[in-house]
């Protein structure tokens, strides 16, 4: 296993007004691994992701990228570092084709004119590197794609920019069985290509199918971050629902600090 | 670089045959994406009907009339496409053109400014109007329907103020008058035609070559030949017809050639098509119209796109206003009023621009404008009164919007949207 995490968070606090949503959260993601971020509704998964992605500012704590401390103040800055987030509700334009969507907002130009040929080549190469075989033509409108194919395009869009960390927010939530398998395979391939993948999921089967590590949030605290191989299904469920499971997790759940 | 594209499809044939293109097109139409097809069919039906009922419809003079009558509305409709692409509407575009025409007239007649300064002032007025409307919609978040409805009323008043409560300001400047009432020498018409066709063919061939050279899917030669051929034939027929002698007494005064307004419309058509199809700005307009949230997340400044669409719309309306002033040789309180706006919206929608945003082309506005102009002209020749014309045009607009809504439903059903 790699020694140094690509992305490391230490002591992150985040409050919205009087409500403290995240308490001294520590979290790390490693290159070549899928780290699953699990937790019940309201545990703070989305907030944590938005703090990493620069949508929310953080109140306290450190963000280390490749070992050096960084400040992420906007989604653009996160993207510049190589952090890409694929949101649950996809953010694709139905009336544009796959290539146009993948390059949206970051179009390649030669002079004033769009450089369609280069964009098409790059998009094809990216999809190829992810062994995507389900798409008929990359000049197809996104409106004609299935849910799984859309998710594939959204993920491919995230890896197009030589990103190092890809965060997937419930990529399989709305998919059928076969499409879920497809997307999970893609998630695994991202990690195998050397990226650090953070997978937010409610589905324990998905988590155990692809993840290398599991980080469980409980009421805004990091209950535990463990290797997937070291824990069982029911332990993870316990971590999610009560914040502890035997030796693992928060030892004083109702107290002020762990 | 020989990319294998996506395995499974393009490895075999880098450029699909013409048959495949035709099949793909039929598939799109059946799936509800009809584009300009209704407009073209409508145009054919209307022209045939009028030509049978009133042979004078196809006379050289009436053919030229179609162009001068449709020019202003097409211009406004081309601008409206940008606003419609965002899923917004500009109900004030008609009176914006009236106000800008009045600015032009006042600047020329009452302040004695030369035509180019006056026209500049008119266009600047349009741009400022667009900035205000766009800011109200994008920054304040007032629905565009309300903003522009308010502007529709207010501009009507502004127009009255500018023309001093109902005066008719005559325009005598020969350059402004010439836009709608003078014609290119026949030779110049043919030269411009040849340049257009050659450049279009050149652009198509170079692009296909370049793509093929990089191993990408390129348009097959037959398709390019078909496109260029269509343009050459239709353009050639139009130029030929416009170059026919239209004067009843050619010895006294000769009337022939392409109206000067036509190359202006064509130039703006090419310019805006280029902007929409080949620049990042145009791509962002489609993106905001398709999914504003996705565009925002992609780092596109959605507010700026919104404002600029309104600026383009009002700016084009100001040019439309100048054409209206030239057509009537005067500006009065009804310039740009009554039917102009609805005809322009109708032109855009009939041409296939979706009222729901995200779909449409500038060329469509021109095709739709042609339909509107033909209805207007043909029914005039048939001797119908304005009342009937209004009713028929209203029904056609409703029909076009119905086709738009239905094709959207159909597209949803077939998974194309």
From TrEMBL, chain A:
Top-rank taxon, per record: Bacteria
Keyword Ion transport: no
Coiled coil start-end: none
InterPro entries on file: AAA+_ATPase, ABC_carbohydrate_import_ATPase, ABC_transporter-like_ATP-bd, P-loop_NTPase
Molecular function per GO: ATP binding; ATP hydrolysis activity
Residues covered by the ABC transporter domain: 7-244
TM region(s), chain numbering: none
CDD domains: ABC_Carb_Monos_I
PROSITE patterns for this protein: ABC_TRANSPORTER_2
PANTHER family: CARBOHYDRATE TRANSPORT ATP-BINDING PROTEIN MG119-RELATED, SUGAR ABC TRANSPORTER ATP-BINDING PROTEIN
Protein name: Sugar ABC transporter ATP-binding protein
Species of origin: Sphaerisporangium album
UniProtKB/TrEMBL annotation, chain B:
Coiled coil: none
Main location group: membrane
Intracellular or extracellular location(s): Cell membrane
Any one Gene Ontology cellular component term annotated for this protein: plasma membrane
Keyword terms: Cell inner membrane, Cell membrane, Membrane, Sugar transport, Transmembrane, Transmembrane helix, Transport
Membrane topology summary: Multi-pass membrane protein
InterPro entries: ABC_transp_permease
Sequence intervals crossing the membrane: 36-57, 63-86, 115-138, 145-163, 183-203, 224-242, 257-276, 307-328, 340-358, 365-384, 390-407
GO molecular function: transmembrane transporter activity
Function (record text): Part of the binding-protein-dependent transport system for D-xylose. Probably responsible for the translocation of the substrate across the membrane.
Protein name, per record: Xylose transport system permease protein XylH
